[in-house]
Every structure is written in structure tokens, then in C-alpha cells.
Amino acid sequence: MNQRSAVYLDLLGILLAIVAALVIGIFVIFLVSDEPVAALQALLIEPFTTLFSFGSILNRMIPLVFTGLAIVVVFQSGVFSMGAEGQLYIGALTGALVAVYLPEMSPWIHIPLVVLAALIGGALYGFLPGVLKAYFKADEIVSTLMFNFIATLFVSYLLNYVFKAPDSGGFARLPFVQESAKLGPIFDGFPTHAGFLLALLAALAVYLLLYKTKTGYELRTVGKNPLFAEYGGIKPKKVLILSIAISGALAGLGGTVEVIVLH
Q1: Cα–Cα dist 176/53, whole Å
Q2: How far apart are CA 223 and CA 235, in angstroms?
Q3: Euclidean distance between the first and final Cα of the chain, in Å?
Q4: How far is CA 169 from the centre of its chain?
Q5: In this predicted structure, which of 4-13, 90-99, 131-140, 244-253 has the lowest mean pLDDT?
Q6: Using CA atoms, how far apart are residues 73 and 219, in angstroms rounded to an integer?
Q7: Confidence tier at 7 by pLDDT (50, 70, 90)
Q8: What is the Cα–Cα distance from 259 to 263, expressed in whole angstroms?
Q9: Which residues are CB-neighbours of 138 under 8 A, at least 6 positions away?
Q10: pTM for this structure?
Q11: Distance (Å, whole) CA 81 – CA 69
Q12: Rounded to whole angstroms, how far apart are CA atoms 224 and 135?
């Protein structure tokens, strides 16, 4: 089978998965809903009736794109990491701290700094279970799920006791994000914010990483056959840790995008 045929099969698999999800969802709606027709209309038709509805759906899709890309990268290396949620929380926190506490500056400087902080925060939080898996044989499903709880509780503690805004009114939140760090809408009259463009760039970057770079080749080779990869000079432990770190960086970026969007 050549590469083009493999791509077509992958696309066919994606389409079949979408169709199966829709069929199962429609079946469940008819089982549990008192007004299934109205529910299906709200699900399949109303999001496309106005620009506002369509743009709002795209906004809700953005964090799913980032976490989906995070899972794609780590699964390619044969690691079943469940840690995207925790990495998203940590990335949201590190990005938010830069967005809040750095002084006002040019958005062309401030926003990239926020993005960089989110990438680093998420990557470091992915690095930890990666080391546990590579050097101590810790089961990555268990460790990353546990790290999710640690992240949510840790972020909650910081927001309630360490970085809580004085004027929060009892709510657990940081001070407001600096104006120079906010992502606005792509264009006036359309609610989709610029995080959508970041998500598209991230998708392109993941594709280039996996299929156009040496690192991507190593990730995929380790995922398919780690013994063969090691025989070929690839270091599986290094690749494993790197894959979870990259996955964490993507999830962390998705978290900070949700924090700095202009509401």
C-alpha cells in the first residue's frame, strides 16, 4: 500500500467515525428526549443559521482542537497519555500569570510571551509523567490521570489563596488580563476570536512535525516498533519524554487561549 492510499484510508476512517458518532447521537436523542426533533434542530441546523451561532460554535471547538492535537502527538509514539486536562490547566495558569502581571506593552510582544509561557508550562507538566514512564516504568494512564487531579487542585489553591484578585467579590480568579494580552475577534461582527487562527497554525505545525521532520519520524517509529527504533539508533526513552512534553505544550496553549480571549 502506497502513502496516498494510506492517507485515503485514514480520511475514510475519520468520515466513518463522524457518521457513526452522529448516528449514535441521534439514536440516543430519540431515546431520552421528549422533543427529539427540536433537539436535532438545535444540534444540526441552528448553529448554521446565523454568523453569531456559527462563530460561537467555532469558539467552543478551539480547546478541543488543541487537546485533540495533544493526544495525536502522544499517541503517535505509542504512549496512552490521559493528561491533556491537567496540562491544559497548568498552561492556562502560566499563560495567565504572564498576561496579568507583565505591564502593558505591544500586543505583538505580550501575546507571544503569553503563548511561550503556556507552552513551557504545559510541556514541563507533561515532562514529569514522561520521566516516570521512561525511567521508572510507571503506567502512563494512571500517572497522567493522577496528574490531572493534582493540576486542578493546585490551580484551584493558587486562585483561591495566592493570586486571588482583591476585588474578586468572593470568586476564585486572578486580576483581569492586561489589554495588550487579549485575543480579539478575527473581524468585527464575527464572534470567533483569533485563537481559531492559532489552532489552525497548531494543526499545521503538528502535521509538519510528524511527517516532515526527523523528530516526527522518530516518534512514529517508536510508536510502531520501539525495539526496531532502538536498533536503528533511536532512543525510545528520549522520544517518549519528548512526545508527552510536546503534547503538554499543545494542551497548555489551548488552556491559555481560553484565558486571554476578549469577551
Answers
A1: 27
A2: 12
A3: 49
A4: 30
A5: 4-13
A6: 8
A7: low
A8: 10
A9: 129, 132
A10: 0.89
A11: 12
A12: 20
The three cell numbers of residue 48 are 448554521
- Whole-angstrom Cα distance, residue 18 to residue 121? 33
Task: Provide the angle, in degrees to the nearest 10, between the axes of the packed helices 107-136 and 140-157.
Answer: 140
Q: Are 238 and 77 in contact (CB under 8 A)?
A: no
- Give per-residue pLDDT as tens, 191-203: 899 999 999 999 9
Secondary structure element (H or E) that encloses residue 190, with its range: strand 190-193
Residue 193's identity, in one-letter code, is H
- Segment 210-224 mean pLDDT: 92
Distances (CA, A) of 12 to 15, 21, 74, 167: 5, 14, 22, 53
Range in 149-158, 215-224, 225-234 the model is least confident about: 225-234
108's grid cell? 505583538
CA distance 191 to 194: 10
Q: Is the pLDDT of residue 170 over 80?
A: no
Average of per-residue pLDDT across 215-223: 92
The torsion angle over the Cα atoms of residues 207, 211, 217 and 223, rounded to 10 degrees, is 60
* 176: DSSP letter: P
Give DSSP secondary structure letters for 55-113.
HHHHHHHHHHHHHHHHHHHHHHTT-----HHHHHHHHHHHHHHHHHHSPP--HHHHHHH
Please tell me the predicted confidence (pLDDT) of residue 177.
92
